[in-house]
Amino acid sequence: MVTYTAPIVSASIVFVILAIFLFVPWLIYTYRKYGYLTISTMIVTFSFIFYFLSALFLVLLPLPATRDTCSMQPPDTAYYSLVPFTFVKNTFENSGIVFSQPSTYALILKQPSFFQALFNFLLLLPFGVYLRYFLQSKRYWKKAFVYGFALTLFYEITQVTGIYGIYNCPYRIFDVDDLLLNSTGALVGFFLAPIALSIFPSKQSVQQKAIQLAALDETRPLTQLFAILVDVLLIKVSWSFTFGLFITNGVLEFLYKSVLLFAIFFVLPTIWSGNTIGTRFMRFRIVSNGRKNKSMFKRFVAIYVTYFVYSVFDTLNKVNLDIDSPYYVFKVSISLGSFMIMVGITLMLIIHILIVVLSKGKRRFYFDEVADVYATKK
Question: What is the arithmetic mean of pLDDT over 316-332?
Answer without folding.
Answer: 70
